Amino acid sequence: MKQWWSVMILVPMLLLAACGQQSGDNKDEVSSAEETASANDTLSKLKEKGYVTVGFANENPYAYKTADGELTGEAVEIARTVLKRLGIEEVRGELTEFSSLIAGLQAKRFDLITAGMFINPDRCEAVLFANPEYSIGEGLAVKSENPLKLTSYKAIADNSKAKVAVMAGAIEIGYLQASGVTDKQMVIVPDQDAAISALQSGRADAMTMTGPALQSRLDSAKDSKLERVMEFEQPVVDGKSVRGYGATAFRMEDTSFQKAFNAELEKMKQSGELLTILQKFGFTEQELPGDATAEELCGG
Question: Taking the model in full, what pTM does it have?
Answer without folding.
Answer: 0.65
